[in-house]
């Protein structure tokens, strides 16, 4: 049950708090006071699309808090616990939606930030909101099948899912056939192109990492002369080759001879001589290695041309098939696989045709089973709607569900569904969308909502001006239907009819005030005297007169008597079921 709604800086509302009661809550106020703004705020809190336009002028964000008592919804409590959003035994659920000026709304469930999908999963079974113009959806026959299937419950939902799965599988096979088949000439051209590409890549005999190896070899070959010259200069510096005195080998030999002579005179110079001797040995070894390197370096223009040609080939393949040798090889594998698939296309097409035929048969069978169940459900829905319409002052109206076969079946089955009515006896049923008046549409939608609510047990229902186009005795009937519905769940109703307001368990009043040049919407829960005055206003306008106040009091007393009678009838029905 919705316990409380708190709103800050939302549209015309700077700050408002509404505490709600069990049973029937009505919301009234003058036209333009902002009654529907309250419903819009609740919708936003439950996951409706957010926009910065809802933020009150001058504020930096709009904030809506809604509090629910979920004691009677143990499944929701377990779901919250599984999601880490609460304890299963905690009867309170708090949802907060903030919309800053940048429009990036945040959602919180029991203080924890969640994404919009999670919010909607939590709230989808808490409230059913029937918007101000939702009864107009009855003018769209494509919506009728949804209402019929909803009345069918889990059995219809399961069959419909089976039909949708079968349809998707069949369509996927048909798409695969289309992709595989195509024009014969297009397929032949594609095969020729793929064959050329595969052969071109295979002829190249590429290896992963080959390009890097060739680039390194090209650098060595292109610089062979410079490498030979540099090594020759190094060898001359180390050994000279001609016995010149400038070579390191010769200079070290001279230094060694001088130190050996010194060591004869002074033994302390002996280690120095040994160090120079070791250096001379190292220089000789380095000179031999440099000479060997120099002698192995040679310019090979033929090999350089081969490397350049190979790199050009790889570059050309990369331009066509990928940014690296590995990508070129991967493309070749894909092309080969596609070529093989095209080569087997005739065989595959036959296999796909057989599979598509089987899947179509499965779809037809599932759709036929769904159609049969829908016709059984339609009979029950028609009876329930006619009973409910009788309660709403349309006792002579006949309601039927029409079926128009569709071949092949679609994802929603093998027929179009359309509601038909005959408002007057002796007339054949005609499409609801073409002959129903606004008031009739409102009452038919209320009847459907009431029936569907009994099957899905939604704890709270909101009706935003469901009484549009309704007056007189029909208003009394609509009010009684809402009051009866509120015996088993919480109902909120935005209304402009005094007759409906008089049947409420709680009455909330919305007014618009101007303070310091700013418009404010104020929400108030009315006490007995205030309620009588508001109903008098709804009957005859301002200011209330003794006559309108007396009439309002009479309506309130009649409303209480009606609610008591409805409670007795409900208790008797329950007792009869228990027997």
CATH class of the domain at 1-126 and 458-525: Alpha Beta
Strand content: 15-25%
**What is the strand tally?**
15
- Within CATH, the superfamily of the domain at 1-126 and 458-525 carries the name P-loop containing nucleotide triphosphate hydrolases
Structural class label: alpha/beta
Task: Kindly report the CATH topology of the domain at 1-126 and 458-525.
Answer: Rossmann fold
Q: Measured on Cα atoms, how large is the radius of gyration?
A: 44 Å
Low-confidence runs of at least 5 consecutive residues:
none
C-alpha termini separation: 30 Å
Outline, from the CA principal axes?
A: elongated
Which range best describes the helical content: under 10%, 10-25%, 25-40%, 40-55%, 55-70% or over 70%?
55-70%
Strand order of the largest sheet: 2-1-4-5-6-7
Annotated CATH architecture of the domain at 1-126 and 458-525: 3-Layer(aba) Sandwich
- Mean pLDDT across residues: 86
Q: What composes the largest sheet?
A: 6 strands, antiparallel
Q: If helices are DSSP runs of H or I spanning 4 or more residues, what is the number of helices?
A: 18
């Amino acid at each position: 049950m919705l316990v409380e709604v708190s709103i800050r800086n939302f549209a015309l509302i700077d700050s408002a708090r509404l505490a709600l009661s069990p049973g029937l809550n009505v919301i009234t106020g003058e036209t333009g006071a902002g009654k529907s703004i309250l419903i819009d705020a609740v919708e936003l809190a439950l996951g409706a699309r957010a926009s910065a336009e809802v933020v009150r002028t001058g504020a930096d964000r709009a904030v809506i808090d809604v509090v629910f008592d979920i004691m009677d919804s143990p499944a929701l409590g377990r779901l919250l616990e599984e999601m880490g959003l609460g304890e299963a035994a905690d009867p309170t659920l708090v949802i907060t939606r903030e919309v800053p000026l940048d429009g990036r709304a945040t959602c919180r469930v029991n203080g924890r930030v969640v994404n919009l999908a999670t919010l909607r999963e939590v709230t989808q079974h808490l409230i059913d909101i029937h918007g101000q113009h939702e009864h107009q959806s009855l003018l769209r026959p494509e919506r009728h099948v949804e209402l019929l299937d909803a009345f069918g419950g889990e059995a219809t939902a399961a069959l419909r899912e089976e039909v949708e799965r079968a349809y998707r599988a069949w369509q996927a096979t048909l798409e695969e056939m289309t992709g595989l088949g195509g024009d014969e000439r297009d397929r032949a051209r594609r095969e020729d192109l793929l064959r050329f590409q595969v052969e071109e890549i295979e002829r190249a005999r590429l290896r992963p990492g080959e390009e890097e190896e060739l680039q390194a070899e090209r650098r060595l070959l292109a610089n062979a002369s410079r490498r030979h010259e540099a090594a020759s200069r190094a060898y001359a510096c180390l050994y000279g080759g001609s016995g010149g005195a400038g070579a390191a080998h010769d200079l070290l030999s001279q230094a060694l001879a001088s130190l050996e002579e010194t060591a004869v005179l002074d033994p302390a110079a002996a280690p120095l001589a040994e160090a120079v001797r070791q250096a001379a040995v190292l220089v000789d070894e380095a000179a031999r290695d440099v000479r060997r390197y120099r002698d192995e370096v040679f310019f090979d223009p033929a090999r350089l041309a081969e490397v350049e040609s190979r790199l050009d080939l790889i570059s050309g393949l990369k331009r066509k098939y990928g940014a690296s040798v590995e990508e070129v090889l991967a493309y070749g594998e894909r092309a080969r696989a596609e070529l093989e698939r095209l080569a087997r296309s005739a065989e595959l097409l036959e296999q796909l045709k057989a599979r598509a035929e089987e899947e179509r048969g499965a779809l037809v069978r599932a759709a036929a089973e769904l159609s049969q169940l829908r016709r059984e459900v339609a009979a029950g829905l028609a009876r329930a709607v006619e009973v409910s319409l009788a309660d709403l002052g349309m006792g002579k109206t006949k309601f039927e569900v029409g079926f128009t076969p569709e071949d092949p079946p679609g994802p929603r089955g093998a027929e179009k569904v359309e509601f038909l009515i005959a408002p007057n006896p002796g007339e054949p049923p005609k499409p609801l969308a073409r002959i129903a008046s606004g008031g009739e549409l409102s009452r038919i939608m209320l009847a459907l909502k009431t029936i569907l609510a009994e099957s899905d047990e939604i704890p709270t229902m909101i009706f935003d001006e469901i009484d549009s186009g309704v007056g007189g005795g029909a208003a009394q009937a609509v009010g009684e239907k809402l009051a009866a519905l509120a015996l088993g769940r919480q109902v909120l109703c935005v209304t402009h009819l005094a007759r409906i307001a008089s049947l409420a368990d709680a009455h909330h009043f919305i007014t618009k005030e101007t303070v310091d040049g700013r418009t404010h919407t104020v929400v108030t829960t009315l006490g007995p005297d205030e309620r009588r005055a508001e109903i008098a206003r709804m009957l005859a306008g301002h200011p209330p007169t003794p006559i309108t106040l007396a009439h309002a009091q009479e309506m309130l007393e009649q409303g209480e008597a009606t609610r008591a009678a409805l409670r007795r009838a409900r208790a008797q029905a329950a007792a009869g079921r228990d027997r």
